[in-house]
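Researcher: Let's do a round of design. I'm pasting the structure tokens now; please hold your answer until I've finished.
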């Protein structure tokens, strides 16, 4: 079989073209596959193996030294936990509130910090700084700030004649108070994602919209919001995952109290672990993993379809 090589190409290019033409269509080099092996090994050791082990140990009554297979008893006992229903309600409420506020505030800050304002770089650093601070440290700090009698927040409110509430001692406010601190800490990451999304929008879209007579509101509605949808999808998914798995900030600030008013699923699991029910807490972790997967996977696919449609 004679290979036809286009005329006018350099000799090296002709040789490459002939080599590609001789190669059968169905063959592909196995060389790139080796690049996946290190990542696959790390993923298997750090994720797959612990996940499969968790599924097994959730079916046992175990300690450090031994385990006894008991089937689905841990799951039955976990769903009979009195605080579980309250924990699930609080978990979804916390996730929706924190992710919603991060999307809205992050978008507004992203628009502000991509505009022509003074000290833009400095303000970006200020907004992002809380992301770098320890979650437990922030929790301890805001616990002191929100103290109903000696906290800085209520003292500042008393100066203008407002009697501040018990931010962390009032059962109706405790969960929302922690949620606001979570938003303060995490909105910097959402802002950075939005900044990246807005900056990546080509200038031609703005110029075309201005030529059509679009004002600031029309630019925001018809250019910025649709073309920054990938950033919005990313912020929603990351914030929702973080909200559903929330534990450290809540535990640092309220320990799930007062009572069970700010308990989430993760804090219920940790309390079972503290009590020595390791198999029961492992079953709770498996349930939480399945719940997060059941919520996030369909949502991410829905958001991806919306992105394609836009």
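Researcher: That's everything. Go ahead.
Model: Designed sequence:
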């Amino acid at each position: 079989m004679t290979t036809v090589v286009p005329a006018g190409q350099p000799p090296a290019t002709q040789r490459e073209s002939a080599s590609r033409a001789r190669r059968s269509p169905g063959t592909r080099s196995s060389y790139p596959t080796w690049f996946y092996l290190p990542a696959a090994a790390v993923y298997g050791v750090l994720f797959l193996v612990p996940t499969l082990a968790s599924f097994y140990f959730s079916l046992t009554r175990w300690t450090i030294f031994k385990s006894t297979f008991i089937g689905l008893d841990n799951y039955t006992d976990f769903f009979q936990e009195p605080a579980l229903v309250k924990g699930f309600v609080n978990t979804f409420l916390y996730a929706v509130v924190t992710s919603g506020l991060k999307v809205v505030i992050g978008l507004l800050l992203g628009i502000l910090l991509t505009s022509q304002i003074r000290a833009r770089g400095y303000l970006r650093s200020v907004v992002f700084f809380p992301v770098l601070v320890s979650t437990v440290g922030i929790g301890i700090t805001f616990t002191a700030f929100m103290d109903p009698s000696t906290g800085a927040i209520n003292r500042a409110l008393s100066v203008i004649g407002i009697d501040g509430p018990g931010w962390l001692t009032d059962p109706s406010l405790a969960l929302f108070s922690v949620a606001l601190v979570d938003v303060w800490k995490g909105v910097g990451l959402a802002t950075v994602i939005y900044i990246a999304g807005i900056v990546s929008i080509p200038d031609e879209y703005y110029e075309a919209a201005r030529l059509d007579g679009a004002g600031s509101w029309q630019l925001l509605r018809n250019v910025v919001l649709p073309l920054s949808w990938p950033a919005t999808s990313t912020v929603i998914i990351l914030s929702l995952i973080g909200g559903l798995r929330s534990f450290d900030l809540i535990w640092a600030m309220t320990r799930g109290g007062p009572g069970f008013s700010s308990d989430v699923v993760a804090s219920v699991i940790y309390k079972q672990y503290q009590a020595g029910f390791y198999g029961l807490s492992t079953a709770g972790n498996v349930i939480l993993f399945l719940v997060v997967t059941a919520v996030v996977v369909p949502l991410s696919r829905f958001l991806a379809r919306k992105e394609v449609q836009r």
